[in-house]
Structure formats: C-alpha cells, structure tokens
Design goal:
Distance between the termini: 10 Å
Number of helices: 7
Bound molecules: NADP nicotinamide-adenine-dinucleotide phosphate
CATH topology of the largest domain: Rossmann fold
Structural class: alpha/beta
CATH class of the largest domain: Alpha Beta
Helix content: 25-40%
Shape: elongated
CATH architecture of the largest domain: 3-Layer(aba) Sandwich
Number of domains: 2
CATH superfamily of the largest domain: NAD(P)-binding Rossmann-like Domain
Strand content: 15-25%
Length: about 240
C-alpha cells in the first residue's frame, strides 16, 4: 500500500517516522523553504500543478491513501486533496492539530482584519508572526514591527518601519518573554496555528500584558475525516493497510 503524506509540519515528520518502513510513505513538501527539515523515507518536493496535477500524480503513482498533515493555514493544498481524493475515491484523512484556546485574544478572520485591529487599537510596537506571506496586509500600517519568519518576506510586502528576525521554532517561554520586553512590544499578531512549538509566545504575551490579535483558522473542506494526533493518524493508516 502506498501513502501520500502531504507535509511541511512537525506532525507530518512524526507520522512518517511512526509508519516508516512498515508502510510505504511518500512525503510531499511545497518547496518554499530552501533547507527544509526532511522526514524519514522518500520525499517529493514542489507543487503538483493544481487539482489536475495532483489527480494525475495520484493515478500515475498508484497512491492508495492520502494523509493531509499540512499546516492548518495551508488551505489551498487541503482543498485540492479533499477534492481529488473525493473524485478518485481515494481514502483521505486530515491530521489537524488542535487549535489554541484564544483566551483573551482578539480573534479576527484574516490578516487584513488583524491589520485593521492594530490600527484601530493604536498599537505601536507589534510582534508580527504570521509568516512571510502575512506581511502585505500590514504594509501601510503606521506602527513599528518586529517581523519573525522562517524565510525573508518579499521586500515590497514589508511595512516601512520594521526589524526582520529570521528564525525557525520551537521557541521557549523565557526567550519569548525576553524578546517581548527587549522590543517593548505592545501587541502580538499570530495565526491560530495550534501546537506546542510556537505556543510559548502566547503565555509570554499574557505575562507581559501584551495584547494578542489572533487570526482564526480557515475552515476545513466539508465532510473530510479528521484526527487531532499523530497516533490517531498512524492507527488509521495501519487499519487501511490491514484492510
Ligand atoms: P497552500 O497555500 O495551501 O498551497 C499553495 C500551493 O502550494 C498548493 O496549491 C500546492 O501547489 C503547493 N503546496 C502546498 N503544500 C504542498 C505540499 N505539502 N506538497 C506539495 N505542494 C504543496 O500552502 P501554504 O500555506 O503556502 O503552505 C506551503 C507548505 O508550507 C505546506 O506544506 C504547509 O504544510 C507548510 N507550512 C505552511 C504554513 C502556513 O502558515 N501556511 C506554516 C508552516 C508550514 P500546486 O497547486 O502546484 O499543487
């Protein structure tokens, strides 16, 4: 049995490790990051070429099962996989890590709404952690930004007044608290990514009295089968293998 594992997350790497070599798993990465953390086992890198390309790939490679363990905000690839698997009748599972409880965060529906919230509340020193594609909405906002991303955003998407911090998690509470204090941050802007790797910034923000603006997750395609943990996903794949 051959499994396509859509990845780019720690959970996807953990699932590949849990199944390899017992199950044939091909991990797929988008190819955005120049030196990605690689899972064990075979890996393909790069887009499939939309819905058509993915359909062709699944048929040509005789894929039996697809597990989508991409990031909760990777909505396009998730929609493509749900559509193609539905059309081909390929069993399909989404591994969606639980969302963070927003607590006292201001929850918004998009980067644009987050930018409006920063302006509306007069935040002046903002820790922006929505990733390289999340800076454009803040370009015209009159505030200073500490922008943390894995790879540099395009220069024409950046707000005028900013400092760029290139780094990759996981992060710890003490480091996050020090960063907020050092830069005298008054608001943290984050996606509701969920998971433990980047969660300490939320606790640090609470301790430091920093406001949190949290972008809510995009909805999953209707009717998809989901699990919350790597263990549940591994069990589901093994059950498919046994069946
Ligand atoms: P996206 O907007 O959902 O996808 C855009 C396009 O990128 C897709 O249409 C597909 O191209 C290609 N793609 C995305 N994930 C792929 C994968 N795992 N394998 C092959 N092609 C893939 O995705 P995104 O938000 O840019 O995320 C890209 C990757 O980074 C994902 O693997 C995701 O897990 C990871 N990631 C994303 C975030 C985030 O905040 N969005 C954070 C951490 C990690 P084609 O249409 O040509 O097939």
């Amino acid at each position: 049995m051959k499994v396509l594992l859509l990845g780019g997350t720690g959970e996807a790497r953990a699932l590949a490790a849990a199944l390899h070599p017992e199950v044939e798993v091909i991990s797929s990465l988008a190819g955005r990051v120049p030196d990605p953390a690689l899972p064990v086992g075979p890996v393909r890198i790069g887009g499939f070429g939309g819905v058509e390309g993915m359909r062709r790939w699944l048929v040509d490679e005789r894929v039996d099962v697809v597990v989508d363990a991409t990031h909760p905000f990777a909505a396009t690839i998730t929609a493509h996989a749900a559509q193609v698997c539905g059309e081909l009748g390929v069993p399909h599972l989404v591994l969606a890590r639980p969302a963070w409880a927003p607590g006292s965060a201001i929850v918004v529906g998009s980067d644009t709404e987050a930018a409006e919230t920063v302006t509306g509340n007069g935040y002046s020193r903002v820790f922006l952690t929505t990733g390289r594609s999340g800076t454009l909405a803040f370009k015209g906002v009159d505030a200073w930004f500490l922008i943390r991303a894995v790879t540099p955003p395009d220069s024409d998407t950046l707000p005028a007044d900013h400092e760029l911090l290139l780094s990759r998690g996981p992060y710890d509470y003490d480091g996050e608290l020090a960063l907020l204090r050092e830069h005298r941050i008054d608001a943290l802007v984050t996606k509701n990514s969920g998971g433990a790797m980047t969660e300490p910034k939320l606790r640090a923000a609470e301790s430091a009295g920093v406001a949190v603006v949290m972008v809510d997750r995009p909805a999953l395609p209707p009717g998809v089968r989901t699990v919350a943990t790597v263990e549940e996903a591994a069990d589901w794949v093994r059950a498919k293998t046994a069946g």
